[in-house]
């Protein structure tokens, strides 16, 4: 059994891991820095934020190089995974903008016709939901009424995320079809 030769960047990362080789780290930084920055900018990061992420990623590469295993991944795959995870962490930390609450003017009473129309639409929606399969209805309720992310629904049901997304998409298509008369 022959083993394939290691890439130059993988050898450099091994030198950083085993010998804390600063010159090898410089080669890694010179090679991956611009590529990581370009990847981050293409994915929507601003120039300054992309540079900060690159600095963080390369710091992680230096500090966690002992965890690198060339038998599991090439240096590039390992470094890009760190960058992707860092970017996901930053996206998750961003504050989700909350919608502004609209104050109802004092003395504004709902129109009886509006109340009846809303009650009628609610009844149509309830009927349309009852005609969905139990799986589609459950996925829609968990996603929209309980406001659960697809990954959490997947954990709760033990189903793959793709299956959850498909059930939601198919359920929404069926609801659109069932409720098309209400749009007019």
Automatic annotation (TrEMBL):
Keywords: DNA-binding, Sigma factor, Transcription, Transcription regulation. Transmembrane segments: none annotated. One of its GO terms (biological process) is DNA-templated transcription initiation. Coiled coil: none annotated. Residues 125-175 form the RNA polymerase sigma factor 70 region 4 type domain. Residues 28-95 form the RNA polymerase sigma-70 region domain. This is RNA polymerase sigma factor. It comes from Paracoccus laeviglucosivorans.
């Amino acid at each position: 059994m022959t083993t394939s030769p290691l890439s130059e960047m993988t050898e450099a990362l091994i030198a950083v891991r085993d010998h804390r080789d600063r010159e090898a780290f410089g080669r890694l930084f010179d090679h991956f820095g611009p590529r990581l920055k370009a990847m981050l900018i293409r994915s929507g990061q601003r120039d300054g934020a992309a540079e900060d992420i690159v600095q963080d990623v390369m710091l992680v590469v230096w500090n966690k190089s002992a965890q690198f295993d060339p038998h599991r991944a090439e240096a590039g795959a390992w470094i890009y995974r760190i960058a992707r995870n860092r970017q996901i962490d930053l996206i998750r930390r961003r504050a989700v903008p909350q919608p502004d609450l609209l104050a109802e003017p004092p003395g504004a009473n709902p129109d009886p016709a509006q109340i009846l129309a809303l009650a009628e639409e609610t009844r149509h929606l309830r009927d349309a939901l009852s005609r969905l399969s139990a799986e589609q209805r459950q996925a829609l309720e968990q996603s929209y009424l309980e406001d659960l992310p697809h990954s959490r629904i997947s954990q709760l049901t033990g189903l793959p995320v793709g299956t959850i997304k498909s059930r939601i998409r198919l359920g929404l298509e069926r609801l659109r079809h069932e409720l098309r008369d209400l749009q007019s």
